[in-house]
């Protein structure tokens, strides 16, 4: 008796058609990873790249709120696997497309199985950029990315808070040497905040990719389903320079 | 085309990799274990798999068999064990679980105590469970 799990071979095959896989990471929660992930995917689309977004937060998904995507039932297409729906020009895959906004209680083994199964059947149709939004912590989802995804390019997100900066130092220690960190993005910047993050990037020898100011009305935009509209009007200007920096770093 | 095709391709690539690693070119028999929970269309899966391996030149597989593993669940809170036929699921729920078996956690609680904390003990998805090397 033997047990060979064929799914991990499917992951490599499906992701081999994607040029760049960008992992948006912060082990601290609440720093705006979902905001940054969605904004980067939208900005890449603006630059005419084929852009895809995967929300890897199975138990607390949030990217769909930024894209104002609230499917009522199962919303995927089968074509030699599953093809993510296209939302605002982005190939978008989230657990929301399967179960809507139902709670999904999962232990670690279930998270790993779900990760492997989803990536084994998801077909990205040759996307140039796949942005992966991750949950906080250094747990199963993050370890699965490092184990099962070849050549991930990591983008860290931090706020100027000491809680977030300390947490960033720890994750940089974990990743450096073995994995490619493209750089760090500062989010929710106020007053001297950017200086603190630039100090961190200098201390840890990590590229500072740029900063985004604190948007106090962000929750209101989300409540009203207006983020994509507001992104085009205001946020895009903040994000474009960061995206160009990322694209030239690759 | 249904997603069984991508599962078939993953199985084929796993077998190819196993063959290369172990320097095997001929299999008398390969057995797949197919979890009941995923409700795979076995006919489509096997047809897709046979179409893929038919094209191979380096590796020959004479016989592909399968066995269905019954799904079993275990409540972490009260210890109750139960089977798929003790639960009722809608067509949409079955379809979501067909793609991603762990999504059962979104639709089901322990049928005895109502706890959301249960595990899938067996019968979740596809594995290559047995390989017999050699000519037919």
Q: In CATH's first tier, which class of chain A applies?
A: Alpha Beta
What integer is the average pLDDT of chain B?
93
Structural domain tally of chain B: 1
CATH architecture of chain B: 2-Layer Sandwich
Q: Quaternary arrangement of the chains shown?
A: heterodimer
Number of helices of chain A: 10
Structural class of chain A: alpha/beta
Biggest sheet layout of chain B: 4 strands, mixed
How many discrete domains of chain A?
A: 1
What are the segments of chain A in which pLDDT stays under 50 over at least 5 consecutive residues? none
Q: Sheet bearing the most strands of chain A, described?
A: 8 strands, mixed
- Overall mean pLDDT of chain A stands at 95
Strand tally of chain A is 10
CATH topology of chain B: hypothetical protein PF0899 fold
Helix/strand/pairing class of chain B, anyone? alpha/beta
Tell me the helix content of chain A.
Answer: 40-55%
Strand order of the largest sheet of chain A: 5-6-2-7-1-8-9-10
Q: How many DSSP H or I helices of chain B?
A: 4
Strand portion of chain A: 15-25%
CATH homologous superfamily identity of chain A:
P-loop containing nucleotide triphosphate hydrolases
Using the alpha-carbon principal axes, give the shape of chain A.
Answer: globular
């Amino acid at each position: 008796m033997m047990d060979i799990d064929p799914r991990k071979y499917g992951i490599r095959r499906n992701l081999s058609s994607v040029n760049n896989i960008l992992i948006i990471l912060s082990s601290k929660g609440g720093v705006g990873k979902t905001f940054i992930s969605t904004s980067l995917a939208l900005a890449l689309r603006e630059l005419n790249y084929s852009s895809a977004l995967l929300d890897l937060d199975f138990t607390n998904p949030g990217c769909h709120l930024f894209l104002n995507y609230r499917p009522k039932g199962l919303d995927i297409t089968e074509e030699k696997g599953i093809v993510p729906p296209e939302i605002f020009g982005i190939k978008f895959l989230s657990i929301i497309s399967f179960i809507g906004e139902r709670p999904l209680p999962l232990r670690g083994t279930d998270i790993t199985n779900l990760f492997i199964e989803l990536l084994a059947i998801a077909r990205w149709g040759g996307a140039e950029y796949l942005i992966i939004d991750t949950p906080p912590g250094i747990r199963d989802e993050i370890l699965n990315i490092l184990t099962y995804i070849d050549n991930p390019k990591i983008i860290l997100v931090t706020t100027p808070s000491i809680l977030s900066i300390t947490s960033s130092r720890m994750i940089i220690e974990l990743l450096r040497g073995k994995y490619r960190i493209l750089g760090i993005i500062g989010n929710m910047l106020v007053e001297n905040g950017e200086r603190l993050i630039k100090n961190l990037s200098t201390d840890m020898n990590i590229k500072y990719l740029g900063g985004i100011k604190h948007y106090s009305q962000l929750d209101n935009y989300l409540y009203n389903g207006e983020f994509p509209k507001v992104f085009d009007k205001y946020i895009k200007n903040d994000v474009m320079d960061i995206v160009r920096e990322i694209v030239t770093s690759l | 085309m249904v997603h069984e095709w991508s599962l078939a391709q993953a199985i084929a690539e796993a077998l190819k990799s196993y063959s290369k690693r172990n320097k095997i070119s001929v299999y008398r028999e390969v057995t797949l274990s197919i979890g009941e929970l995923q409700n795979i269309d076995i006919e489509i899966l096997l047809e897709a798999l046979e179409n893929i391996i038919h094209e191979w030149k380096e590796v020959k597989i004479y016989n592909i068999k399968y066995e269905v593993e019954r799904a079993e669940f275990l409540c972490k809170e009260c210890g109750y064990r139960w089977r798929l036929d003790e639960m009722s699921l809608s067509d949409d729920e079955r379809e979501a679980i067909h793609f991603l078996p762990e999504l059962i956690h979104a639709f089901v609680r322990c049928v005895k105590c109502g706890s959301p904390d249960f595990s899938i003990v067996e019968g979740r998805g596809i594995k290559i469970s047995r390989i017999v090397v050699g000519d037919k």
